[in-house]
Amino acid sequence: MTETYENAPWRDESKTFEERAKALVGEMTLEEKVFQTLFNAPAIERLGVPAYNYWNEALHGVARAGTATVFPQAIGLAAAFDEDMMEEVADTISTEARAKFNMQQQYGDTDIYKGLTFWSPNVNIFRDPRWGRGHETFGEDPYLSGRLGVRFIRGMQGTDPKYMKVAACAKHFAVHSGPEDQRHSFNAVVSNQDLRETYLPAFRACVTEGHVEAVMGAYNRTNGEACNGSKTLLVDILRGEWGFQGHVTSDCWALKDFHEFHMVTKNQEETVALAMNSGCDLNCGNLYVHLLQAVRDGLVEESTIDRAVTRLFTTRMKLGLFDRKEEVPFNKIGYENVDTEENRKLNREVSRKTICLLKNEGALLPLDISKIRTIGVIGPNADNRKALVGNYEGTASEYVTVLDGIREAVGDSARVVYSEGCHLFRDRVQGLGRSNDRIAEAKAVAKMSDVVIAVMGLDPGLEGEEGDQGNEFASGDKPNLELPGLQEAVLKALAESGKPVVLVLLGGSALAIPWEDEALPAILDAWYPGAQGGRAVADVLFGKANPEGKLPVTFYRTSEELPAFTDYAMRGRTYRYMKQKALYPFGYGLSYTTFEISDASVKGSIDEGVTCEATLTNTGKLAGAQTVQVYVKAPLESGPNAQLRGLRKIRLQPGESAKVSISLAKDAFGVYNEEGRKVLLPGAYEIYVGMSQPDERSAALLNTTPASFTIQRDGAECEI
Question: Based on the domain organization, do 323 and 354 belong to the same domain?
């Protein structure tokens, strides 16, 4: 900052950030203001304003800007069902973010991915397991997504009374979850009931509770309105109902879709007018240069641009970018805080917590290394770095694949023999080879092994964002839920060996594996487990860690069960609306130890709130963690099944007990009717307190059912 402007009104730290931003914007020309609405905002040297690039990513670690801690992908973080852990992860990410920013500023580096405005978290609802970007989300449940989103934002933005550590951004607003190959022209048609019950709650929590600084619009239309220019979403709901005070950014190059594909405007000038007038303050793209002409033609008032630029500079001022360096505590975070040994240790611990044990017949796991001489490690994901990280990733200083982790854990105690087994999705590994050209090797490895660890699944080359380089299916979406290529055929050959086979899945979404569930004795889902993922998987396989993950999505038996991908109605989708039994239900996950819930009770009323209490006891022989889950079923025929309304993660030693109390405010009992109004209804409300949702399949898999309670509400229907 130049000395000339030390005493300028926008440098007066006694004023509010908004007052200072208004004072600065008041000194700008129209052209200067317009160029500040672009994501790569240029410097205004005459006012001492440095260049700033708003585009940065931190979905599961600081991304695309060099070395950083690469945590498990977002869907894996969600599987931990652990709000405290989520905030700790985000706090670590934001510390590395500040450290990298401070270093980059020292060298005058203001390039893309070098700012403090991070376009995370993604709190879209993972409504269909075929969606390629679902692994960026926190799963299929609005309540869980909201809770984790709020805590992620808190960890990112910090708790300093004056300054933000970094600025978080909730995306993509709203009703956005594929198909990827249609996103630039797609119109997501959704009922008022589904909009309010499913697609908006996580965003509402991020805004009203998390106080997220930014919101990003979605590419698609929702009920005919382009999301980045939607009066309903941006004006009426976001700012009107929820009182959002931050800034809104478009998704990248989404505005040109208005006139090129959505056909809601005729040209670029009309497009930028619609977006700006609807409250889209920042353009990830370059279309907002046309605001100059839009103002001259009377389509946009200059005061509207003033409002947008004031919001943008308010964010930058909250980050301390216009204050004396010594006044901003985060300026003291040095580059030595990036990729520390402590952060790598945390990453491994977090990865352990995300792993879901789906089957463990005969207590095959954990493996006793003292009784094993040879371990066969087979599969295309066993030594696949891409399958550790997912998308929107940073660069780790060390990548530990599952094969690496097993070798390290076993040491000289046993021999580890490896075969790729098959290509991840093609019918051969070598282009000139015959189909299934690694099957003989896989069979040989199985034959000589005492136990086989088969590492299968997906990687971000098979599921991801439309246009991602190397995506096999081009759009990023999956065509079905089956294991790709020859993976199942190889698994069947391994099962025929007669050796015990442990299936380890790496991937970011639900897979249909009914044969595997029937035929294989043990199945782990490790998601995209992060750069330390191989060590975490080995820790679980050999009993150094006890699995504690819970599924944040439903595993279906077949994609044929699902409604059309383009159908945004929730009927038949996710645990909240499905009628059939899942292969593996939402909220399900096994442990190496056993837990029991006793003395469960509920006290209170629907209108005043209810307190749920229970005693959780570790009745097994190993230390472990369990998530107590509370579900509520409201008396609304067109409403959802029992849905998650409370959770608490508890860690216990063998024989140890803990009392758990979970409070439900009256809002937890409200449901949205067909008009989209949230109401309390007369009738019987069912409350379930347990370790899973109250469905038949969970009960069969866990051999236990949640405690159930009925509370009658006799009052008249009322809106809340």
Answer: no
Q: Which residues of 456-466 are buried (b: 16+ CB within 10 A; e: fewer)?
A: bbbbbbbbbbb
**Residue range 681-685: mean pLDDT, rounded:** 97
Which of 559, 424, 439 minimizes the C-alpha distance to 485?
A: 424
Whether 339 sits among the annotated catalytic residues: the reply is no
1 pLDDT more than 80: no
Shared domain for 519 and 652, answered yes or no, is: no
Arithmetic mean of pLDDT, 476-501: 97
What digits encode the pLDDT tens for the residues 189-241?
Answer: 999 999 999 999 999 999 999 999 999 999 999 999 999 999 999 999 999 99
* Cα angle 335-336-342, degrees, rounded to a multiple of 5: 130
398 is catalytic: no
The pLDDT tens digits of the residues spanning 301-338 come to 999 999 999 999 999 999 999 999 999 999 999 999 99
Annotated catalytic residue within 136, 213, 251, 270: 251
- Does 205 lie in the same domain as 91? yes
**Total number of domains in the chain:** 3
Q: What is the CATH number of the domain that holds 37?
A: 3.20.20.300
Q: Are residues 289 and 422 in the same domain?
A: no
Residues 218 and 353 in one domain: no
Range of the domain at 407: 341-550
Q: Does 569 fall in a domain? A: no
User: Does residue 148 sit in the same domain as residue 212?
Assistant: yes
Tell whether 168 and 73 lie within a shared domain: yes
Interatomic CA distance for residues 423 and 663, integer angstroms = 49
The mean pLDDT value of the chain amounts to: 97
Q: How many CB atoms lie within 10 A of CB 303?
A: 7
Q: How confident is the model at residue 4 (pLDDT cuts 50, 70, 90)?
A: low
Global confidence as pTM? 0.98
If one counts every other C-beta atom within 10 angstroms of the C-beta of residue 266, the result is: 10
- CA distances (Å), origin 26, targets 229, 246, 277, 427: 26, 19, 19, 64
* Phi and psi at residue 91, to the nearest 5°: -65, -40
Cβ neighbour number for residue 684 with a 10 Å cutoff: 12
In a domain, 242, yes or no: yes
Among residues 82, 420, 463, 466, which one is catalytic? 463
Measured CA to CA, the distance from residue 36 to residue 466 in angstroms comes to 28
Burial (CB < 10 A; 0-12, 13-18, 19+), residue 57, is: buried
